[in-house]
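Q: Joint fold for the lines below.
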Amino acid sequence: MAEYKKYSNRLGITGWLAGGRWGIERYLYSLHRITGLGILLYFILHIFVTSSRVFSMDAWEKWMGFFGSPIFKFGEFLVFVAFAFHAVNGIRLFLIELGFAVGKAEEPIYPYKSSLNTQRPLMVVLMIVAIVLIAAGGYEFLGLTH
Amino acid sequence: MRETKYWTWHMFAGVIILILLGIHMITMHLSTLLGWFNPAGGDAIGWDNLLARATLFIYAVVYIVLLGAALYHGLYGFRTILFELGLKKGAQKFINILFIAAGICLFAFGTWAATKFYIIAQGA
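A: Joint structure:
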């Protein structure tokens, strides 16, 4: 098995927020991780809370009443925002991983062209989709439909 | 090579989550706009809607598949973040064991709850 050299992660978590003069994609990377961790935490709590339905209708309604207060509703909306962003940005990462929307490989002739410029329209379109989803979710969460 | 395989599973688990959690989110949070899978009307988390959804076998299956995919995707993603911080081999091994054990326990608990409620809904 081939050995590979490991490099230290010099910036650590601080690199997520202030890594240098990177493009917006770098900050989407940070946001993807932050939202992912938030969703994971919520998901684990969600497994336990929703399992109360097994015990009785009263247990279920007690928990739903507890989480029905405005502060938890707002927290739930933040989870929805995190999910909408994480899902749409995940689609972008998936497409790029499979080689879509990255442009054709070229010889590196000065002035060099960054592949990020080719990818950027996809990012812009998908972020607009995320904003539309968040707005639709907000419409429901803020009770505008009632 | 093994890590590449785990990464590929992580990506495809993301696609499964996108579809199934998308349905779940639409059911729960766009219910007033769309009214899907909420035959009793009103709030999507109302007991009557909960029971109505639980009578469908496909719903129990969807919950269990979603549970497995989300646990794998989330815990593998968290593991990747931790490993990127340059942990030593011993710490990596500990995290692997901890996350596998946590994933199995959460999956077993969630599967039990989904199955039990499906059985309860059949008798209701």
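Q: Anything notable?
A: Chain A touches chain B at residues 6, 8-9, 12-13, 33, 36-37, 39-40, 43-44, 47-48, 50-51, 53-54, 57, 60-61, 64, 80, 83, 87, 90-91, 94, 97, 136-137, 139-141, 145-146 (CB under 8 Å). Helices of chain A lie at 14-17, 24-50, 57-66, 70-97, 115-141.
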